[in-house]
Design brief:
The structure is a single chain. The protein is α+β, with helices and mostly antiparallel strands. It folds into two domains: about 300 residues, no CATH class; about 160 residues, GAF domain (Beta-Lactamase, 2-Layer Sandwich), CATH 3.30.450.40. A six-stranded antiparallel sheet has the order 3-2-1-6-5-4, with helices on both faces. The protein starts with 9 loop residues before the first helix and ends with a helix.
Length: about 475
Protein backbone atom coordinates (compact mmCIF):
# COMPACT_ATOMS: atom_id res chain seq x y z
CA UNK A 1 0.00 0.00 0.00
CA UNK A 2 1.56 3.28 -1.08
CA UNK A 3 2.02 6.07 1.43
CA UNK A 4 3.06 9.70 1.09
CA UNK A 5 6.63 10.55 1.88
CA UNK A 6 7.16 11.04 5.59
CA UNK A 7 8.10 14.58 6.61
CA UNK A 8 9.14 13.35 10.06
CA UNK A 9 9.18 9.77 11.29
CA UNK A 10 6.93 8.96 14.28
CA UNK A 11 9.83 7.96 16.52
CA UNK A 12 11.78 11.12 15.72
CA UNK A 13 8.61 13.15 16.29
CA UNK A 14 8.27 11.66 19.78
CA UNK A 15 11.95 12.30 20.55
CA UNK A 16 11.63 15.97 19.54
CA UNK A 17 8.51 16.26 21.69
CA UNK A 18 10.39 14.83 24.68
CA UNK A 19 13.17 17.39 24.16
CA UNK A 20 10.53 20.14 24.10
CA UNK A 21 9.14 18.85 27.40
CA UNK A 22 12.60 19.08 28.95
CA UNK A 23 12.24 22.90 29.14
CA UNK A 24 9.27 23.04 31.56
CA UNK A 25 10.57 19.96 33.39
CA UNK A 26 13.92 21.61 34.10
CA UNK A 27 12.18 24.77 35.23
CA UNK A 28 10.14 22.77 37.75
CA UNK A 29 13.26 20.95 39.02
CA UNK A 30 15.14 24.24 39.47
CA UNK A 31 12.35 25.80 41.52
CA UNK A 32 11.88 22.66 43.63
CA UNK A 33 15.61 22.36 44.41
CA UNK A 34 15.95 26.08 45.17
CA UNK A 35 12.92 25.89 47.51
CA UNK A 36 11.01 28.53 45.55
CA UNK A 37 7.69 29.80 46.85
CA UNK A 38 4.53 27.75 46.38
CA UNK A 39 3.16 30.04 43.66
CA UNK A 40 6.16 29.45 41.39
CA UNK A 41 6.13 25.68 41.93
CA UNK A 42 2.38 25.53 41.27
CA UNK A 43 2.83 27.47 38.05
CA UNK A 44 5.69 25.20 36.95
CA UNK A 45 3.67 22.05 37.66
CA UNK A 46 0.68 23.37 35.72
CA UNK A 47 2.98 24.47 32.91
CA UNK A 48 4.49 20.98 32.68
CA UNK A 49 1.01 19.45 32.55
CA UNK A 50 -0.12 21.81 29.78
CA UNK A 51 3.12 21.25 27.87
CA UNK A 52 2.61 17.48 28.08
CA UNK A 53 -0.89 17.81 26.63
CA UNK A 54 0.43 20.06 23.85
CA UNK A 55 3.20 17.57 23.03
CA UNK A 56 0.64 14.75 22.91
CA UNK A 57 -1.64 16.76 20.61
CA UNK A 58 1.34 17.58 18.37
CA UNK A 59 2.52 13.97 18.05
CA UNK A 60 -0.93 12.45 17.65
CA UNK A 61 -1.89 14.98 14.96
CA UNK A 62 1.32 14.46 13.01
CA UNK A 63 1.09 10.66 13.15
CA UNK A 64 -2.65 10.56 12.46
CA UNK A 65 -2.41 13.11 9.67
CA UNK A 66 -0.05 10.99 7.59
CA UNK A 67 2.57 13.75 7.68
CA UNK A 68 0.67 16.36 5.63
CA UNK A 69 2.06 19.90 5.58
CA UNK A 70 -0.79 21.16 7.80
CA UNK A 71 -0.22 18.49 10.42
CA UNK A 72 3.51 19.19 10.43
CA UNK A 73 2.79 22.91 10.86
CA UNK A 74 0.52 22.19 13.83
CA UNK A 75 3.17 19.88 15.30
CA UNK A 76 5.77 22.65 15.12
CA UNK A 77 3.38 25.30 16.45
CA UNK A 78 2.19 23.20 19.41
CA UNK A 79 5.72 22.20 20.45
CA UNK A 80 6.88 25.81 20.27
CA UNK A 81 4.19 26.62 22.83
CA UNK A 82 5.24 23.69 25.02
CA UNK A 83 9.01 24.39 24.96
CA UNK A 84 9.15 27.35 27.31
CA UNK A 85 11.27 29.02 28.63
CA UNK A 86 13.32 28.54 25.47
CA UNK A 87 16.78 29.51 26.73
CA UNK A 88 16.80 27.39 29.89
CA UNK A 89 19.21 24.73 28.60
CA UNK A 90 21.98 27.31 28.45
CA UNK A 91 22.22 27.11 32.25
CA UNK A 92 22.82 23.36 32.31
CA UNK A 93 25.19 22.61 29.46
CA UNK A 94 28.96 22.65 30.08
CA UNK A 95 30.88 25.80 29.18
CA UNK A 96 31.80 24.90 25.60
CA UNK A 97 28.34 23.58 24.81
CA UNK A 98 26.19 26.57 25.72
CA UNK A 99 25.69 27.30 22.01
CA UNK A 100 23.35 24.27 21.89
CA UNK A 101 21.06 26.02 24.35
CA UNK A 102 21.12 29.15 22.18
CA UNK A 103 20.30 27.06 19.11
CA UNK A 104 17.34 25.52 20.93
CA UNK A 105 16.05 28.98 21.81
CA UNK A 106 16.39 30.07 18.16
CA UNK A 107 14.49 27.01 16.93
CA UNK A 108 11.68 27.42 19.45
CA UNK A 109 11.21 31.12 18.65
CA UNK A 110 11.18 30.53 14.90
CA UNK A 111 8.93 27.48 15.14
CA UNK A 112 6.04 29.49 16.54
CA UNK A 113 5.99 31.87 13.56
CA UNK A 114 6.57 29.06 11.06
CA UNK A 115 3.70 26.93 12.33
CA UNK A 116 1.27 29.81 12.65
CA UNK A 117 1.96 31.22 9.16
CA UNK A 118 1.77 27.83 7.46
CA UNK A 119 -1.53 27.01 9.19
CA UNK A 120 -3.00 30.36 8.14
CA UNK A 121 -1.82 30.22 4.54
CA UNK A 122 -2.44 26.54 3.75
CA UNK A 123 -5.67 25.67 5.54
CA UNK A 124 -7.68 23.70 4.49
CA UNK A 125 -6.16 22.29 1.26
CA UNK A 126 -2.56 22.01 2.46
CA UNK A 127 -1.18 24.40 -0.19
CA UNK A 128 -1.10 28.20 -0.41
CA UNK A 129 -3.39 29.74 -3.01
CA UNK A 130 -3.18 32.74 -5.34
CA UNK A 131 -1.05 35.66 -4.30
CA UNK A 132 0.03 33.92 -1.08
CA UNK A 133 2.07 31.25 -2.83
CA UNK A 134 4.97 33.68 -3.17
CA UNK A 135 4.83 34.62 0.53
CA UNK A 136 4.54 30.95 1.52
CA UNK A 137 7.95 30.22 0.00
CA UNK A 138 9.66 32.66 2.37
CA UNK A 139 8.00 31.42 5.57
CA UNK A 140 10.96 29.18 6.62
CA UNK A 141 13.45 32.00 5.92
CA UNK A 142 11.37 34.52 7.84
CA UNK A 143 10.96 32.13 10.78
CA UNK A 144 14.73 31.52 10.88
CA UNK A 145 15.42 35.28 10.82
CA UNK A 146 12.96 35.81 13.63
CA UNK A 147 14.58 33.04 15.69
CA UNK A 148 18.09 34.40 15.14
CA UNK A 149 17.06 37.86 16.33
CA UNK A 150 15.52 36.27 19.42
CA UNK A 151 18.71 34.31 20.05
CA UNK A 152 20.88 37.44 19.91
CA UNK A 153 19.39 38.71 23.15
CA UNK A 154 16.18 39.10 25.12
CA UNK A 155 16.58 42.79 26.05
CA UNK A 156 17.04 46.08 24.29
CA UNK A 157 16.69 46.61 20.55
CA UNK A 158 16.86 42.90 19.73
CA UNK A 159 13.78 42.18 21.83
CA UNK A 160 11.93 45.10 20.21
CA UNK A 161 12.89 43.83 16.74
CA UNK A 162 11.69 40.35 17.67
CA UNK A 163 8.37 41.76 18.88
CA UNK A 164 7.91 43.71 15.62
CA UNK A 165 8.71 40.67 13.47
CA UNK A 166 6.39 38.32 15.37
CA UNK A 167 3.51 40.79 15.06
CA UNK A 168 4.17 41.17 11.34
CA UNK A 169 3.80 37.37 11.16
CA UNK A 170 0.49 37.53 13.05
CA UNK A 171 -0.90 40.23 10.74
CA UNK A 172 0.25 38.46 7.55
CA UNK A 173 -1.22 35.17 8.76
CA UNK A 174 -4.54 36.81 9.58
CA UNK A 175 -4.72 38.53 6.18
CA UNK A 176 -3.83 35.31 4.36
CA UNK A 177 -6.59 33.43 6.15
CA UNK A 178 -9.19 36.14 5.52
CA UNK A 179 -8.31 36.19 1.82
CA UNK A 180 -8.62 32.41 1.62
CA UNK A 181 -11.93 32.36 3.46
CA UNK A 182 -13.30 35.05 1.13
CA UNK A 183 -13.07 32.63 -1.79
CA UNK A 184 -13.99 29.44 0.10
CA UNK A 185 -17.25 27.67 -0.74
CA UNK A 186 -19.16 24.62 0.43
CA UNK A 187 -17.30 22.15 2.60
CA UNK A 188 -14.11 24.23 2.46
CA UNK A 189 -15.96 27.12 4.11
CA UNK A 190 -17.05 24.88 6.98
CA UNK A 191 -13.56 23.45 7.39
CA UNK A 192 -12.07 26.92 7.85
CA UNK A 193 -14.57 27.95 10.53
CA UNK A 194 -12.60 26.51 13.44
CA UNK A 195 -9.38 27.94 12.03
CA UNK A 196 -10.99 31.37 12.34
CA UNK A 197 -11.52 30.74 16.05
CA UNK A 198 -7.92 29.55 16.48
CA UNK A 199 -6.42 32.56 14.71
CA UNK A 200 -8.65 35.11 16.45
CA UNK A 201 -7.96 33.56 19.86
CA UNK A 202 -4.22 33.44 19.32
CA UNK A 203 -3.86 37.01 18.06
CA UNK A 204 -6.19 38.41 20.74
CA UNK A 205 -4.41 36.62 23.60
CA UNK A 206 -0.99 37.66 22.30
CA UNK A 207 -2.17 41.27 22.29
CA UNK A 208 -3.45 40.95 25.86
CA UNK A 209 -0.20 39.21 26.86
CA UNK A 210 1.84 42.11 25.51
CA UNK A 211 -0.39 44.68 27.23
CA UNK A 212 -0.21 42.94 30.62
CA UNK A 213 3.59 42.74 30.43
CA UNK A 214 3.80 46.44 29.67
CA UNK A 215 1.54 47.21 32.65
CA UNK A 216 3.65 45.07 35.00
CA UNK A 217 1.29 42.09 35.40
CA UNK A 218 3.90 39.57 34.30
CA UNK A 219 2.55 36.63 36.34
CA UNK A 220 -0.96 36.98 34.90
CA UNK A 221 0.55 37.37 31.42
CA UNK A 222 2.54 34.16 31.92
CA UNK A 223 -0.63 32.21 32.79
CA UNK A 224 -2.38 33.69 29.77
CA UNK A 225 0.48 32.68 27.48
CA UNK A 226 0.53 29.16 28.90
CA UNK A 227 -3.23 28.55 28.61
CA UNK A 228 -3.60 29.82 25.02
CA UNK A 229 -6.14 27.40 23.43
CA UNK A 230 -5.13 28.16 19.82
CA UNK A 231 -3.19 24.87 19.23
CA UNK A 232 -6.21 22.83 20.34
CA UNK A 233 -8.53 24.83 18.05
CA UNK A 234 -6.17 24.25 15.12
CA UNK A 235 -6.04 20.52 15.92
CA UNK A 236 -9.83 20.30 16.09
CA UNK A 237 -10.06 22.10 12.73
CA UNK A 238 -7.78 19.48 11.14
CA UNK A 239 -9.85 16.63 12.59
CA UNK A 240 -13.13 18.22 11.49
CA UNK A 241 -11.66 18.83 8.05
CA UNK A 242 -10.77 15.12 7.72
CA UNK A 243 -7.09 16.00 7.39
CA UNK A 244 -6.25 13.85 10.41
CA UNK A 245 -7.13 10.17 10.20
CA UNK A 246 -8.46 9.53 13.72
CA UNK A 247 -8.51 5.78 13.14
CA UNK A 248 -4.87 5.50 12.13
CA UNK A 249 -3.17 7.28 15.00
CA UNK A 250 -4.98 5.31 17.71
CA UNK A 251 -3.02 2.11 17.28
CA UNK A 252 0.27 3.89 16.73
CA UNK A 253 -0.28 6.05 19.81
CA UNK A 254 -0.62 2.95 21.99
CA UNK A 255 2.53 1.34 20.62
CA UNK A 256 4.64 4.50 20.74
CA UNK A 257 3.45 5.29 24.25
CA UNK A 258 4.48 1.84 25.44
CA UNK A 259 7.92 2.02 23.80
CA UNK A 260 8.74 5.61 24.74
CA UNK A 261 7.93 4.84 28.36
CA UNK A 262 11.26 2.95 28.44
CA UNK A 263 13.54 5.99 27.96
CA UNK A 264 11.31 8.07 30.22
CA UNK A 265 11.72 5.49 32.98
CA UNK A 266 15.49 5.34 32.45
CA UNK A 267 15.78 9.14 32.55
CA UNK A 268 13.76 9.17 35.76
CA UNK A 269 16.14 6.63 37.34
CA UNK A 270 19.15 8.66 36.19
CA UNK A 271 17.63 11.79 37.70
CA UNK A 272 17.18 9.96 40.98
CA UNK A 273 20.78 8.69 40.94
CA UNK A 274 22.23 12.11 40.18
CA UNK A 275 20.07 13.63 42.88
CA UNK A 276 21.30 11.22 45.55
CA UNK A 277 24.86 10.52 44.50
CA UNK A 278 26.40 13.19 42.29
CA UNK A 279 24.34 16.30 42.96
CA UNK A 280 26.01 17.86 39.94
CA UNK A 281 23.29 19.54 37.87
CA UNK A 282 25.49 20.30 34.86
CA UNK A 283 26.85 16.76 34.62
CA UNK A 284 23.39 15.30 35.23
CA UNK A 285 21.85 17.32 32.41
CA UNK A 286 24.67 16.40 30.01
CA UNK A 287 24.35 12.66 30.72
CA UNK A 288 20.56 12.78 30.38
CA UNK A 289 20.87 14.40 26.95
CA UNK A 290 23.38 11.72 25.91
CA UNK A 291 21.01 8.96 27.06
CA UNK A 292 18.09 10.55 25.17
CA UNK A 293 20.17 10.71 21.97
CA UNK A 294 21.21 7.07 22.35
CA UNK A 295 17.60 5.99 22.80
CA UNK A 296 16.60 8.01 19.74
CA UNK A 297 18.83 5.88 17.51
CA UNK A 298 17.35 2.71 18.99
CA UNK A 299 13.77 3.92 18.57
CA UNK A 300 14.45 5.13 15.04
CA UNK A 301 15.53 1.60 14.07
CA UNK A 302 12.11 0.32 15.23
CA UNK A 303 10.11 2.75 13.08
CA UNK A 304 9.33 0.46 10.15
CA UNK A 305 8.63 -2.50 12.39
CA UNK A 306 6.14 -0.47 14.40
CA UNK A 307 4.34 0.77 11.27
CA UNK A 308 4.14 -2.77 9.92
CA UNK A 309 2.85 -4.08 13.24
CA UNK A 310 0.18 -1.39 13.55
CA UNK A 311 -1.04 -1.79 9.97
CA UNK A 312 -1.31 -5.58 10.20
CA UNK A 313 -2.71 -5.98 13.71
CA UNK A 314 -4.68 -2.85 14.54
CA UNK A 315 -5.93 -2.21 11.00
CA UNK A 316 -5.70 -5.60 9.31
CA UNK A 317 -9.05 -5.19 7.52
CA UNK A 318 -8.09 -1.76 6.22
CA UNK A 319 -4.63 -2.96 5.19
CA UNK A 320 -6.01 -5.90 3.18
CA UNK A 321 -8.75 -3.76 1.59
CA UNK A 322 -6.30 -1.15 0.35
CA UNK A 323 -3.93 -3.85 -0.87
CA UNK A 324 -6.83 -5.42 -2.83
CA UNK A 325 -7.69 -2.07 -4.45
CA UNK A 326 -4.01 -1.66 -5.35
CA UNK A 327 -4.20 -4.99 -7.19
CA UNK A 328 -7.30 -3.78 -9.04
CA UNK A 329 -5.40 -0.66 -10.12
CA UNK A 330 -2.49 -2.80 -11.34
CA UNK A 331 -4.88 -5.06 -13.30
CA UNK A 332 -6.80 -2.29 -15.10
CA UNK A 333 -4.24 -1.80 -17.94
CA UNK A 334 -4.78 -5.43 -19.02
CA UNK A 335 -8.59 -5.29 -19.24
CA UNK A 336 -10.01 -6.52 -22.57
CA UNK A 337 -13.70 -5.53 -22.22
CA UNK A 338 -15.51 -2.45 -20.84
CA UNK A 339 -17.77 -4.67 -18.75
CA UNK A 340 -14.75 -5.72 -16.70
CA UNK A 341 -13.99 -2.09 -15.80
CA UNK A 342 -17.62 -1.61 -14.75
CA UNK A 343 -17.48 -4.71 -12.54
CA UNK A 344 -14.26 -3.61 -10.88
CA UNK A 345 -15.48 -0.08 -10.14
CA UNK A 346 -19.07 -0.90 -9.20
CA UNK A 347 -18.74 -4.26 -7.43
CA UNK A 348 -15.16 -5.11 -6.40
CA UNK A 349 -14.08 -1.70 -5.03
CA UNK A 350 -17.23 -1.14 -2.87
CA UNK A 351 -16.87 -4.65 -1.45
CA UNK A 352 -13.25 -4.04 -0.47
CA UNK A 353 -13.74 -0.52 0.94
CA UNK A 354 -17.10 -1.42 2.52
CA UNK A 355 -19.23 1.24 0.80
CA UNK A 356 -23.00 1.12 1.21
CA UNK A 357 -23.66 1.45 -2.51
CA UNK A 358 -22.13 2.24 -5.89
CA UNK A 359 -23.31 3.21 -9.36
CA UNK A 360 -21.53 3.97 -12.61
CA UNK A 361 -22.68 6.12 -15.55
CA UNK A 362 -21.08 5.71 -18.99
CA UNK A 363 -20.55 8.59 -21.38
CA UNK A 364 -22.83 8.25 -24.41
CA UNK A 365 -23.40 10.76 -27.21
CA UNK A 366 -25.70 13.22 -25.42
CA UNK A 367 -26.17 11.76 -21.97
CA UNK A 368 -24.53 9.68 -19.27
CA UNK A 369 -26.44 6.39 -19.02
CA UNK A 370 -26.59 4.23 -15.91
CA UNK A 371 -24.42 1.21 -16.69
CA UNK A 372 -24.59 -0.62 -13.38
CA UNK A 373 -25.81 -0.11 -9.83
CA UNK A 374 -24.87 -1.92 -6.64
CA UNK A 375 -27.13 -1.17 -3.69
CA UNK A 376 -28.11 2.40 -4.64
CA UNK A 377 -31.80 3.21 -4.34
CA UNK A 378 -33.76 5.81 -6.32
CA UNK A 379 -31.08 6.94 -8.79
CA UNK A 380 -31.84 8.12 -12.32
CA UNK A 381 -31.21 6.03 -15.41
CA UNK A 382 -29.74 9.02 -17.30
CA UNK A 383 -27.80 12.20 -16.50
CA UNK A 384 -27.69 15.22 -18.78
CA UNK A 385 -24.19 16.37 -19.79
CA UNK A 386 -24.81 19.84 -18.30
CA UNK A 387 -26.22 18.52 -15.05
CA UNK A 388 -24.26 19.81 -12.00
CA UNK A 389 -23.77 16.18 -11.01
CA UNK A 390 -21.62 15.86 -14.15
CA UNK A 391 -20.14 19.35 -14.42
CA UNK A 392 -18.78 19.66 -10.89
CA UNK A 393 -16.93 16.32 -10.79
CA UNK A 394 -15.68 16.93 -14.33
CA UNK A 395 -14.07 20.24 -13.27
CA UNK A 396 -12.61 18.84 -10.05
CA UNK A 397 -9.22 17.10 -9.77
CA UNK A 398 -10.35 15.14 -6.73
CA UNK A 399 -13.21 13.18 -5.21
CA UNK A 400 -16.34 15.34 -4.91
CA UNK A 401 -18.82 15.23 -2.05
CA UNK A 402 -22.37 15.35 -3.40
CA UNK A 403 -23.31 17.67 -0.52
CA UNK A 404 -21.12 20.35 -2.17
CA UNK A 405 -22.97 20.14 -5.49
CA UNK A 406 -25.98 22.42 -6.08
CA UNK A 407 -29.34 20.81 -6.72
CA UNK A 408 -29.03 18.51 -9.70
CA UNK A 409 -31.70 18.18 -12.33
CA UNK A 410 -32.43 14.74 -10.98
CA UNK A 411 -33.47 13.96 -7.42
CA UNK A 412 -31.13 11.92 -5.23
CA UNK A 413 -32.79 10.10 -2.38
CA UNK A 414 -31.50 10.60 1.15
CA UNK A 415 -30.62 7.77 3.49
CA UNK A 416 -27.90 5.22 4.08
CA UNK A 417 -28.22 3.72 0.58
CA UNK A 418 -27.89 7.07 -1.22
CA UNK A 419 -24.68 8.00 -3.05
CA UNK A 420 -22.45 10.46 -1.19
CA UNK A 421 -19.37 10.90 -3.40
CA UNK A 422 -18.71 11.30 -7.12
CA UNK A 423 -15.52 9.93 -8.69
CA UNK A 424 -14.83 11.28 -12.21
CA UNK A 425 -13.05 9.00 -14.68
CA UNK A 426 -11.29 11.50 -16.93
CA UNK A 427 -8.66 10.96 -19.59
CA UNK A 428 -7.34 14.10 -21.26
CA UNK A 429 -10.36 16.27 -22.13
CA UNK A 430 -12.78 13.34 -22.24
CA UNK A 431 -14.87 12.13 -19.32
CA UNK A 432 -15.43 8.42 -19.83
CA UNK A 433 -17.62 7.75 -16.82
CA UNK A 434 -18.68 8.94 -13.40
CA UNK A 435 -18.84 6.61 -10.40
CA UNK A 436 -21.06 7.33 -7.40
CA UNK A 437 -20.14 5.80 -4.05
CA UNK A 438 -22.05 5.77 -0.77
CA UNK A 439 -20.71 6.20 2.74
CA UNK A 440 -18.89 3.46 4.63
CA UNK A 441 -21.14 0.96 6.35
CA UNK A 442 -19.46 1.98 9.62
CA UNK A 443 -20.59 5.59 9.08
CA UNK A 444 -17.03 6.96 8.96
CA UNK A 445 -16.24 9.48 6.19
CA UNK A 446 -13.73 8.77 3.45
CA UNK A 447 -10.30 9.80 4.70
CA UNK A 448 -7.49 11.46 2.77
CA UNK A 449 -5.63 8.20 2.10
CA UNK A 450 -8.71 6.54 0.66
CA UNK A 451 -9.37 9.61 -1.48
CA UNK A 452 -5.88 9.39 -2.96
CA UNK A 453 -6.40 5.67 -3.58
CA UNK A 454 -9.71 6.28 -5.37
CA UNK A 455 -8.18 9.00 -7.55
CA UNK A 456 -5.45 6.58 -8.60
CA UNK A 457 -8.20 4.07 -9.34
CA UNK A 458 -10.01 6.64 -11.53
CA UNK A 459 -6.78 7.42 -13.37
CA UNK A 460 -6.18 3.71 -14.00
CA UNK A 461 -9.77 3.26 -15.23
CA UNK A 462 -9.40 6.22 -17.60
CA UNK A 463 -6.23 4.67 -19.05
CA UNK A 464 -8.08 1.37 -19.48
CA UNK A 465 -10.95 3.12 -21.31
CA UNK A 466 -8.46 4.93 -23.56
CA UNK A 467 -6.70 1.65 -24.32
CA UNK A 468 -9.96 -0.03 -25.30
CA UNK A 469 -10.96 2.98 -27.40
CA UNK A 470 -7.66 2.89 -29.28
CA UNK A 471 -8.08 -0.82 -29.92
CA UNK A 472 -11.59 -0.23 -31.26
CA UNK A 473 -10.28 2.52 -33.55
CA UNK A 474 -7.49 0.28 -34.77
CA UNK A 475 -10.05 -2.42 -35.60
CA UNK A 476 -12.17 0.10 -37.50
CA UNK A 477 -9.14 1.33 -39.44
CA UNK A 478 -8.15 -2.24 -40.28
CA UNK A 479 -11.69 -2.99 -41.48
CA UNK A 480 -11.75 0.14 -43.65
CA UNK A 481 -8.40 -0.71 -45.16
CA UNK A 482 -9.67 -4.20 -45.93
CA UNK A 483 -12.74 -2.75 -47.67
CA UNK A 484 -10.55 -0.38 -49.69
CA UNK A 485 -8.31 -3.24 -50.73
CA UNK A 486 -11.31 -5.22 -51.97
CA UNK A 487 -12.82 -2.30 -53.91
Amino acid sequence: MSKPRNALSPILAVIVALIALSFPLLKLLIDVRSLADTAHITYDALHLLVATVLAAVACVTLIGGRYSSLCFALYVFALSRAAQPAGLWQLFLPGGWSWIGTLMAVLVAGASAYGFLRLCMRTPSGVAMGRWRFADRFVPTYALLLGLIYGLGSVGHFYVAFGVLIWIAYVVGLLAYLDRRRTAVGDELLRTRWVALAIATHVALEAVFLTLNMLGYSQLAAYLFMLNPAPYAFAYALVRGRIVDVRVFGGRALVYAAITSVPIAVLAVLELLFEKELRNVRLAGFVEVAVAVAFSFWLQSLHRRIDRFVERWFFARRHHAHAAVEKIIDALPFVERPDTIVTMLCRDVPEQLDFQCAAIYDNQDETFNLRASNGCIGIASQLDRDDPLILYPRSSPSLVSLSDIPAARISLTAGEYAPAYALPVIGGSRMYAIVLYGEHRSGEPIDSEEERLLMRLAHGAANAYEHLLLRARESEIAALRHQLALS
